[in-house]
Write a structure and sequence with these properties.
Helices cover 32% and strands 13% of the residues. It is built from 11 helices and 9 strands. It is of the alpha/beta class. The chain has 2 domains: 127 residues, Alpha-Beta Barrel (TIM Barrel), CATH 3.20.20.190; 107 residues, no CATH class. The termini are far apart. InterPro entries: GP_PDE_dom (IPR030395), PLC-like_Pdiesterase_TIM-brl (IPR017946). One of its GO terms (molecular function) is phosphoric diester hydrolase activity. This is Glycerophosphodiester phosphodiesterase.
Length: 326
Amino acid sequence: MRKRNIFLLVALASAGAIYLNNTSLLSNRPDGKPVVLAHRGLAQEYDRTGLTGDTCTAERMLPPRHDYLENTIRSMDAAFARGADVLELDVHPTTDGKFAVFHDWTVDCRTEGSGETRSHSMADLKNLDVGYGYTADGGKTYPFRGQGVGLMPSLDEVMARFPDRRFHINVKSNDAREGEALAAFLSPLPAERRAALTVVGGDKPLQAVKAALPGMRTLGKKSLTRCLLRYAGLGWSGYVPEDCRGTTLGIPINIAPWLWGWPNRFLDRMENAGTNVYLFGPYHGGGFSDGIDDPAMIETLPAGYSGGISTDALDLVMPAIQRRAN
């Protein structure tokens, strides 16, 4: 009986110590508002039912709430003006040594062109109409046709237009050579400029970026999984595994409450480790989650939450964020 009582006391003391080490009630982190990551800037929404990697989302456009086209300078300007703190954009190498800012692997869906995006020169891509393929009524009307000619920007244009803004640069392939080329593009930038950027993508290009620029923040599925699994095993102690340091984490909103120290102790630990944290929509299996696009989901964030969120519907969620801040 005495041994059993000692065991219970030790167990209770251990549980209490773990609780005290992870409760946000003892965090000094001040209340704030979310850091907002706008996915592709202000973009048209589309029906996500049964999506595959080959689905042409421009043909699934929902009735538009605005006239902005994703991954364009105009869209980025509007997103920052509406309160976005960070923008995600997609890049492909071109035949003339540039990086085109465009989501799709081919130009067939959104433009009147054809072929893989990377098989074109930037000069050729500038001649295409990036609004050509959008339709919300099965092809009866194309409301943006003719309005997107010349609007596909290059990455150097974006960096020149927004020299002080934060971006997530999404490499669309799993080709190490693309990571090497992107690292060569980023290398001449001042260290403080690179610190405002995160490279997102497949494991091979991210490894190439890290090899060339060890301090560069990256976000990939494999590195994220390694971080979260190791933190699940060790985070109760306050320890931050190496895989979680100096990086960017994209965490589904339904996974976050299970992390040791969530929200404020976790955010404090990651901030001290040089890591940015963004919440995504709920994880239901498969790849990355969608963004936090339902304004009602903003109300489920912890009170005073000051970490990041990612959204595909900036125009819908920003009013909810502003109401919550007032």
